[in-house]
Hints:
The protein has 308 residues and is mainly alpha-helical. Helices cover 63% and strands 0% of the residues. The protein folds into 2 domains: 1-19 and 164-303, no CATH class; 51-159, no CATH class. It has helices at 2-14, 20-34, 37-45, 47-50, 57-66, 76-85, 89-106, 111-117, 120-132, 134-140, 142-155, 165-171, 180-197, 210-226, 233-246, 253-261, 290-299. Helix 7 packs across helix 11 (142-155) and helix 9 (120-132) packs across helix 11.
Amino acid sequence: MKLANSVLQYYKSNLESLPFDKQFHFASRLHAWSGDNDCTKLVESYRAQLLPTSTPVNELLQNIINNPPESTINAAEARAPYFAKYPELRGLMLALFRVRHLFYYYGADARRNLVDIKPYNELHTLAITLSQDEEAMRILSTYAVNYIYLVEHILYDVHSGVINLEAIYKLGDAYDVENKNQLLLLIYLYTHCIIGETNFYERSVMPARKPGYLKMIKRLETVISQHFENINLDNKLEYLVCCKILGYESNLQDLIHDECNNSLSPEGTFLIDTVNKAAQASKTSFSASEHRNVLFIMSTQPYQHLQD
């Protein structure tokens, strides 16, 4: 799409005005998704910021675990009791992400460093506990799924059976899809399973697991179609990205991209979220819109790992 290319060029031209975490998110996603040459060079240039030579790796990871940065969390009130129940979850998830980035982007293996701080059996036990806590899985959604996939399927790759796609699919039965927050959490639960399967866009979906993910995406197609106006644009675009990953032709693609065409910010060439009834009014700045816009760009490009 012409608009997506304009958004891409606008972000590239103005990327240095964003906080570092937004710069890295944007560049790393497009590096993995399409092999964008500019973004690949940017990711290479970020090594020193992700792995500063002045800080021992154990100290770096311990600080991430102990002091996870503040962030805007969707459905924060509903999730608060579960973050309290699993107080280490967010810090450990962010430390796992850092270890992942170091390993897959820079060939720096810090997996043992993390295990020195948090033994693998404890990481694994938390993954099991989360997977068996159905209410926590449903409400924590993205956070629980990201953690489990990072431990079980990406970094330590033990395939111990904690990721049970049928069980995760059945969690969808308990959401009240008339509630905007629960609708959001359902979409993120399923989409982050698919994204986690690909190691955040680094590989294709394993053929044996693809039917389970297609089942999820088809359920989302029905739910999104029925509740289109009550779903924010980020949610819809993440769904389209997952369709691309699976090679699934969604009958909602044109409708979602039409909404994108009507969502241009008056402050620059990037999308904001104002058309639907779940619009994220607090995320209309150039920086706060990065997640939405990189998903939009990805949703218009072929997934380079589709046939790996």
